[in-house]
Amino acid sequence: MASFPISRYSFFVVFLVFSFVTLAVSLDLSFSLKRFDKGRNFDSKVALFGDAEVVDGGSSVKITRSSVSSAGRIIYRKPIRFIGGERRKPMSFSTYFSFSISPEDGDGLAFVVLPTGFPSDLFDGSSFGLTPGLEKRGTRVLAVEFDTSMDTKLGDPNGNHVGIDLGSLVSAQVKNVSSINLVLNSGRKLHSWIDYDASTKILEVRLSKSGAVRPSVPLISYRIDLSDMWKEEEVFVGMSSSSGNSSQTTSIYSWSFSLRTVPRWLHSQPADPLVYTEPSKPPIIQKKGSCLLRILAGLIFGTGCGALAAFIVMFVWTISVNRRQSVVPVEYPVHPVEFAYEKIKVFVQKPTKDGNK
Fold it and tell me: Which of 303-317 are b and which e, b meaning 16 or more Cβ less than 10 Å from the residue's Cβ?
């Protein structure tokens, strides 16, 4: 019987389906800075404020100097929104950066999401350089702090923790970094991943030492709706640091960021569907260029789906044909069958007439 390599075809089917799902997730904004070489490309993407400066030929950005009350900030120039597209879909984001903090007891580092009206060039040398304008912006400031100082007034558990701040330096959720055997201000390079899933409204923070893989379990997992927090307001993303009353220095070695729209059919259902139900809108007159792009995108997507459907049909047909060819009719041996018979003698007695003996 001929064998049929089903596993090979199954792999291609899975690969094609995965490719279409991946293409359906559109990247609205993404950048990756593995170096910080000063130049036109760098200046058009990133802005440095305060004491932040490019050092070591572009291999890193030192946000704070080795002096008391030093503060700095690195901000991506292009603003983003957490509600995007014509259908006003919630946006997800992922960011990764590698950094180091010197052993002094300064304020540490914070990944920040700031409204466009936040004074990016104003510092006071404390609290990650975020104090000016923080209280005025209320809860519309998000910071993931990598804090190396303990302030009992802010509820800090120790001088080695990660916290999520919402419009206040009092963390909404905090986690001791010592629980994963790491020290933030060890002077060694660390890696952090911060991911926000718009479908589940979950913000996750991961942390590892240099050379380690991305942890499967997040250090912090916090539920928050960023699309409701900022609506359609534009915000900036970046990192901010201050040395406080020490000479602590903070350096960034690489930074990547991606903002993406996830199709509605990939979303899990929200806890309260009525909150996210889109109101009916009047018809929108599309521009000619937008219509052409939509038609082209529809043709490409339709062609891809048709090709995938044809492949699946041929795959199933090929399997059925091979199964038919593999079926061999069963032959039964023919043997002569002997039948036994016997001779039967029949005697007929003639009737006698009456009176004759």
Answer: eeeeeeeeeeeeeee
Total domains, the chain: 1
pLDDT tens-digit readout, 62-112 = 999 999 989 999 999 999 999 876 678 899 999 999 999 999 989 999 999
Work out the burial of residue 60: count CB atoms within 10 Å of its CB; fewer than 13 is exposed, 13-18 middle, 19 or more buried. Answer: buried
Question: Could you give phi then psi for residue 98, rounded to 5 degrees?
Answer: -110, 140
Residue 339: C-alpha distances to residues 168, 332, 335, 342, 347 (Å): 105, 21, 13, 10, 26
Whichever domain contains 229, its CATH number is 2.60.120.200
Domain contains 49: yes
- Residue 82: name the closest of 274, 237, 240 by CA: 237
Residue 23 confidence class, pLDDT cut points 50, 70, 90: very low
Q: Is 335 a member of any domain?
A: no
Q: Is residue 3 part of a domain?
A: no
Residue 275, domain member (yes or no): no
Counted residue by residue, the chain has a size of 357
Reported as a single tens digit per residue, the pLDDT across 256-287 is: 999 988 654 444 333 333 333 333 344 344 44
DSSP state of 39: S
Give the H or E element holding residue 16.
helix 6-24
Q: Which domain holds residue 190?
A: 26-266
User: 3-class SS at 122?
Assistant: coil
Q: Using CA atoms, how far apart are residues 31 and 257, in angstroms rounded to an integer?
A: 5
